[in-house]
Design goal:
- The complex is a heterodimer of chains A (489) and B (750).
- Chain A has 18 helices and 13 strands.
- By secondary structure, chain A is of the alpha+beta class.
- Chain B has 750 residues and is an alpha+beta fold.
- Chain B has helices at residues 2-15, 43-46, 52-56, 62-67, 80-84, 115-119, 146-151, 179-182, 187-190, 219-224, 251-257, 260-264, 348-355, 363-369, 379-382, 387-399, 498-524, 544-568, 578-606, 619-636, 652-677, 683-688, 692-716, 725-732, and strands at 273-277, 288-291, 313-318, 322-339, 344-345, 356-357, 360-361, 405-415, 444-447, 468-472, 478-482, 536-540, 734-738.
- In chain B, helix 17 runs parallel beside helix 23, helix 18 (544-568) packs antiparallel against helix 19 and helix 18 crosses helix 23.
- The longest helix of chain B is centred in the C-terminal third of the chain and has 29 residues, at 578-606.
- Chain B is elongated.
- Classes of the chains: A alpha+beta (489), B alpha+beta (750).
- The interface between A and B is medium-sized, with 30 and 37 residues.
């Protein structure tokens, strides 16, 4: 075909028929490529908005520790010492945190002059009220051994309880003052250690307030093996607590507003969901005003009931039938409920807090903690809360909330004498008691972040903007339904 | 009648659970008023039922309202109270009134009708928080729930997956029963008073200088005389379909042909009635009812019955969107006893008397109907499936005074407007319509059974007239067989004009046959021609441009044929190729047209056009010679009568063929193709040319002819010196041409 052409040159090649064909094939190919690119750009019925998250499924390292321990442990502190041989920093790291100290950093509480360090160690609530004087029974859930009184030495590393969070044998149970019973197989527990699973956290956090699901409302044992509908993170995606409550050097993220009043070290949905792109732009316009949890946690305590009311004034009646969900002689009368619609309040991630010694008005409901924020506060959003109400002791003359000794020596759970219990409690806490007590109503506000439902079960427009609205617009500061009367612009 | 309704409504309202929240706050603007009965006396004195006309009529012109009221006619006479009062109830006991005899302020709960007010009669409308379920009186109370009964649509903001109904794959149905309800668009947002000044954008007449007439009646005039002939807003009153639907090809055309509901109500999950047999009576005093989409025979409760819902049936002839538009319907077929003169329906109470006496079946009925001898009549046994049963009931009716009783049946079409799905849940499936088995031509099952084999009649006029024929399908069922010719629209991938396919395939078959025979015989005789070829000269015959435009043409035609075939047979095989086929087809159509025009320009300006024009000198002779060559000479190895040269590249037959091809067939194909593409742009032009029913089959026929040419052309390129020498020439431009005929006489060395 190429007659009489010696050598080779591109231009001559191009000029020949052969070259032209190649050129033309290239042109056709490019045209086809352009065609398909154009088509792929066109044929996009919009796919579901992709979840934009920073979440990368963590690789959970797991080193089998069973080879490291061969002889039985005599005391739990021996276990801790063994752990510290390879993990020398762990105890000291933990001892800086609230899981050990049961205190936070210094904070300024609204209405109080001096900043204080507060935490479970020294705060009251409207459940079992106060740990002071009751340490052995309350410190069952302390991440340490032997906190039986106010002389506990917080500087001894060997009293750190490594096992409660890290052991996975399932046989390890803490008893009074956080010490496991004598015949606990500590060796098996030590061998089983690894990263904490949901059961490790659940063993204390599900049973706060003295029973299954009493306190939080959004934390109970239905989350041990949850379905997708119970909690979409844990049920569908197998999240462990530590996936959101990220931990570095034993500093566990997350803020419990029962014992904290600000959001230092706290967790946000936006830590992973960095740009919630709801398909409907009208939903996106809610993001500045409504917290994610409000729509995505439509109810709490869906499977197991939670306590919503605790009347201490009824305690002590020996003739009443006992039932953990209705009445106990040591505790009084309760109301449990399940599948509860939350109450909604403005919340800017800071709270008010009642401290022992503060004055109350016994005619009104005293808020032990209360979410701060309001319709005019741009940093506040509408959050869902479990509200626990109670009738608890107050000093008739001084108008202060009183913290009785319940489980401790001489406490009400042994002697059934409130006056004595309150005297002992006043001594232990260093507060005054005039000798006369009454019962006043209190409330505690627990913001909800667990039991997130799958997105198709999220609240629809009609849940808040319909005729049977779960929002009290006037109480929130609106004129009426903001869909009709306008938002807070 | 009105009083009866008022009493029934009030009683029913009183039975409503007390837990119903007081959703309306009392209307502080409405003046206090006394509640009067129909004689004008206060009800607290007379104890009679409240009268809307007398109570409300002193301020609102009640007579005007009733004259202009869609809810005040022969069938129903609703008063103010049913629609405007909370719970459709006005308090009438003594404590409701203050000292002056006026209704207490806090009890004046008047408002624009809420969904619950409409739900009182229409339904199923479910607005409260309890999971949606089918009410127990759904089958019995014929004065309510007509919306759901006729169409299956249920109006509720809840997700279908949260309801109590037993639906197939319920957990996947995570979308609301009705998206408008979920978005807080109430009934009155679309069904508002005809003269509501806040809802009207009026353009009067054809005043092109006016977009909107701002003149309105005042609020007080409106409150005095609200026109209760309620509007029914169209989708386009709020939605602009052109702002979305970017994925939809030819969307203007789709919107011309289809009502919005056709795609946006593509699945109904509520209990729609399929047929009602009033010729039979159950023990509960109801007719025999069949529902669409319910799969279990014996129904304890409609909530428990397992159902999958149904896909509405598409018919052309929307009453609301326009007579030409296709819309979704449910067909409800009813059998009734009618009385001979005039065909008036026999009241159902009378029919019940023919079956039941004191709440039990008459013994004669049990004797005739009880097939399994258990003294109970199941729904299957209640069917009038034998002359014995039919004549028994006929006789009983005659005894009750009915003249000449006989059975008549009618099918009614109910257009569906409610139960709209959210847009992103609508399946974007072209092959629902653009396929051989298209939803547009789906046969409609009317009933599992026809009493006394009476076939239902279709109404005159409306969507069902001329839509098809009612047939029994052997097993006793009755179905509406759609007539494919009844559709006013040509649907690509579905509509077939068989004449074009037939003609085209015939032509194609002839060509293929001819090619097979000719080629076969050439192969058979190839030994006769070996080594006949004489000396040949290598000539540069086809310039680069000629080759380029040839191959572009070839590629385009090939791809157009392939994609065209995919479009013609879309829906079969892989799905979702229609969009791709159409896009590729349009792209290469443009390529082909541009290529053709450039080529025409080239040929005209370079005078190469003369290659295509046969010389008039000795035309007949040349045609004869070339034809004879193909019929005989080619087998014998004769040389070409008109060998190629750069001056004359095409033989006369080629010239004639290409003239016809490029000047008749190609333009026709291009013009019909452009018309198909632009049928909504130039509707008048398309109609003049006969509409798509002519244009599309012509395009189809042309494509068969092109395909035949393709085969013939490909074959004829093998008639060169060697089998592939012609193709090679079209690639590199060079051809070995033999010396002219004169020097080849003598055969072997020629």
């Amino acid at each position: 075909m190429l007659n009489n052409r010696n050598g080779f040159s591109w231009s001559s090649r191009l000029k020949t028929a052969f070259g032209f064909i190649h050129l033309w094939m290239a042109v056709v190919f490019l045209a086809l490529a352009a065609l398909f690119y154009y088509l792929s750009a066109l044929s996009g019925p919009d796919e579901a908005a992709t979840r934009e998250t920073d979440y990368k499924k963590p690789v959970r390292t797991h080193l089998d520790h069973s080879a490291y321990f061969s002889s039985a442990f005599k005391t739990p502190q021996d276990v801790t010492r063994a752990c510290l041989e390879c993990h020398p920093q762990s105890a000291s790291d933990l001892m800086k945190t609230a899981h050990w100290q049961w205190l936070g950093e210094e904070v300024k509480v609204p209405g109080h002059e001096q900043p204080v360090r507060m935490g479970k160690k020294n705060l009251i609530n409207n459940f079992c009220i106060s740990i002071i004087g009751n340490w052995p029974s309350c410190t069952k859930c302390h991440a340490g051994y032997g906190w039986a009184d106010d002389k506990f030495d917080f500087s001894k590393a060997e009293n750190v309880d490594c096992l409660v969070c890290h052991e996975k044998s399932g046989i390890y149970v803490k008893g009074a003052s956080g010490v496991p019973s004598e015949d606990t197989d500590l060796l098996a527990a030590a061998r089983s250690v690894g990263y904490p699973k949901r059961e490790n956290c659940a063993v204390c956090h599900n049973y706060g307030g003295g029973g299954q699901g009493v306190k939080h409302g959004d934390l109970d044992s239905s989350l041990d093996n949850p379905s997708r509908e119970d909690d979409v993170h844990m049920g569908q995606y197998g999240f462990l607590c530590i996936d959101c409550h990220k931990t570095e050097k034993h500093n566990i993220n997350g803020r419990a507003y029962s014992v904290s009043i600000e959001h230092e070290n706290g967790i946000n949905c936006s830590d992973c969901h960095n740009k919630p792109a709801h398909r409907d732009a009208r939903i996106n316009s809610h993001l500045d005003t409504v917290a994610c949890q409000t729509c995505h946690i439509p109810t709490y305590a869906r499977k197991l009931p939670t306590k919503t009311f605790w009347d201490w004034s009824k305690a002590g009646d020996p003739n009443r039938a006992e039932d953990p969900h209705h009445y106990l002689k040591i505790k009084g009368e309760f109301i449990y409920d399940h599948d509860i619609v939350p109450e909604y309040y403005w919340f800017n991630l800071n709270m008010n807090r009642y401290l022992l010694g503060d004055r109350i008005d016994p005619e009104k409901v005293t808020d032990i903690n209360y979410p701060l924020g309001g319709i005019d506060d741009r940093s506040a959003k509408i959050w869902p809360f479990k509200v626990h109400r109670a009738m608890q002791h107050y000093d008739l003359n001084l108008n202060t909330i009183l913290a009785p000794v319940t489980g401790g020596d001489g406490g009400f759970w042994h002697d059934f004498d409130w006056d004595k219990a309150l005297k002992l409690g006043a001594q232990a806490t260093g507060t005054e008691y005039s000798g006369e007590y009454g019962f006043a109503e209190t409330a505690m506000y627990w913001p909800l972040s667990h039991m997130v439902t799958p997105k198709e079960s999220a609240l629809q427009c009609s849940a808040c903007h319909g005729e049977e609205s779960r929002m009290d617009w006037k109480a929130l500061g609106y004129e009426g339904d903001p869909m009709k009367t306008g938002g807070r612009q | 009648m009105k009083r009866f309704i008022v009493i029934v409504m009030s009683m029913f309202a009183l039975l409503l659970p007390l837990a119903l929240h007081a959703a309306t706050t009392s209307n502080s603007m409405h003046p206090a008023f006394p509640v009067l009965d129909k004689n004008g006396l206060p009800v607290s004195e007379s104890g009679e039922a409240p009268s809307s006309v007398k109570t409300c009529g002193s301020c609102h012109d009640a007579e005007y309202i009733n004259r202009h009221n869609s809810h005040f006619n022969g069938k129903v006479q609703a008063g103010c109270i049913e629609c405007h009062f909370e719970n459709s109830l006005i308090p009438t006991d003594e404590t409701a009134f203050d000292e002056g005899g006026l209704l207490r302020r806090e009890l004046i709960r008047i408002s624009t009708p809420r969904n619950a007010n409409c739900a009182h009669c229409h339904g199923i409308v479910h607005n409260d928080l309890s999971p949606v379920s089918i009410p127990e009186d759904y089958e019995y109370d014929t004065s309510r729930y007509d919306l759901t009964r006729n169409t299956g649509a249920m109006v509720s903001p809840q997700n279908i997956s949260d309801s109590l109904l037993n639906l197939k794959n319920k957990e996947t149905l995570a979308y609301p029963w009705d998206v408008h309800s979920a978005r807080m668009v109430g009934c009155t947002a679309c069904h508002f008073a005809g003269n509501n000044p806040s809802k009207i954008d009026r353009k009067l007449g054809d005043l092109d200088f006016l977009v909107n007439d701002p003149r309105r009646i005042s609020t007080s005039e409106y409150l005095r005389r609200p026109n209760h002939k309620l509007a029914a807003a169209a989708c386009a009153d709020c939605h602009d379909p052109l702002a979305t639907h970017a994925f939809l090809p030819y969307r203007e055309r789709h919107f011309e042909v289809l009502s919005c509901e056709s795609c946006h109500i593509s699945s109904i999950k509520g209990p729609a009635i399929k047929s009602r047999d009033f010729t039979s009576v159950t023990l509960q005093g109801t007719p025999l009812i069949e529902y669409r989409g319910i799969e279990s025979e014996q129904l304890d409760s409609l909530n428990a019955a397992f159902g999958a819902g149904y896909t509405p049936f598409l018919f052309a002839g929307s009453a609301t969107a326009g007579p030409g538009k296709i819309a979704p319907f449910n067909l409800v077929t009813e059998w009734r006893w009618v009385s001979g003169d005039g065909g008036a329906a026999v009241p159902f109470e009378t029919v019940s008397k023919a079956y039941l006496e004191a709440g039990q079946y008459r013994s004669a009925v049990i004797k005739a109907f009880d097939a399994d001898g258990n003294s109970e009549l199941s729904p299957l046994e209640l069917r009038l499936d034998s002359p014995v049963k039919t004549s028994l009931i006929e006789a009983a009716l005659k005894d009750l005074g009915v003249k000449d009783p006989r059975i008549k049946s009618e099918t009614a079409a109910h257009e569906i407007h409610h139960g709209v799905m959210p847009g992103h849940w609508v399946k974007k499936d072209c092959s629902r319509c653009h396929a051989r088995e298209s939803d547009l031509n789906r046969d409609v099952p009317l009933s599992v059974f026809a009493p006394a084999n009476i076939k239902p009649e279709l109404p005159n006029g409306g969507a069902l007239s001329a839509a098809g024929e009612v047939n029994s399908d052997g097993g006793g069922s009755v179905i509406l067989k759609k007539n494919p010719d009844s559709s006013p629209y040509y649907v690509f991938g579905h509509t077939r004009a068989s004449w074009s396919d037939l003609l085209g395939m015939l032509f194609m078959a002839a060509v293929v046959f001819g090619v097979a025979v000719h080629g076969g015989y050439r192969i058979y005789t190839r030994r006769n021609r070996q080594a006949i070829h004489g000396q040949a000269e290598r000539v540069y015959l086809y310039s680069a441009y000629e080759r380029i435009w040839h191959w572009v043409m070839a590629l385009s035609v090939l791809l157009l044929l392939l994609t065209g075939l995919q479009i013609h047979f879309s829906g079969s095989g892989r799905s979702n190729t229609l969009f791709l086929s159409v896009s590729v087809h349009n792209f290469f159509a443009v390529v082909l047209v541009v290529n053709a025009f450039l080529s025409l320009f080239y040929h005209l300006s370079s005078n190469a056009i003369k290659q295509f024009i046969p010389s008039r000198r000795n035309l007949k002779g040349e045609v004869a010679a070339q034809t004879l060559y193909y019929l005989n000479g080619i087998f014998a190895g004769h040389p070409h009568p008109m060998p190629e040269s750069p001056e004359r590249k095409l033989n006369v037959l080629q010239q004639i063929t290409y003239l016809l091809l490029l000047n008749v067939l190609l333009p026709m194909q291009v013009v019909t193709g452009v018309m198909i593409w632009g049928v909504s742009r130039w509707p008048d032009l398309a109609a003049q040319l006969g509409g798509l029913f002519i244009i599309a089959p012509l395009h189809n026929l042309g494509s068969w002819l092109f395909l035949s040419f393709f085969v013939l052309h490909f074959y004829l390129t093998t008639t060169g010196r060697t089998t592939f020498s012609n193709i090679r020439a079209m690639i590199d431009g060079y051809k070995d041409i033999e010396a002219p005929a004169s020097s080849t006489q003598g055969g072997r060395n020629g």
